[in-house]
What we know:
By secondary structure, the protein is an alpha+beta fold. It has a single domain, classed as 2-Layer Sandwich (Alpha-Beta Plaits). The protein has helices at about 15-25, 70-90, and strands spanning about 1-5, 10, 30-35, 50-55, 55-65, 95-105. It starts with a strand and ends with a strand.
Amino acid sequence: MEVTSALGTIRIANDAVAQIVARAAAESYGVVGMAGKGLKKLLPGDRGVSVRATADGLRIDLHVVVEYGLNLAEVGAAVRSRVVYEVERLTRLPVAAVEVHIEDVRRSA
């Protein structure tokens, strides 16, 4: 992923964007954790986030665990909004889509 200006080009790694997404999602209201999907649950370092660069912008998939008793649609919308805001603010890359997958519901400790 690249940001180009009159002064030059900045290349941003997918992993750097994935870290921004994971932090923004984890700090969102109602999210108690991140979840891997399928076999990814077994891999160390998996944050439950995938980022792809397309012609129209970044496409982000994230898998979260939500606190029991909250409206899942509202939590998903809040996570999506916060992730788009933080990624665009910190990277200046456009976000085309954010898919929030709620993998589990748990009581917070």
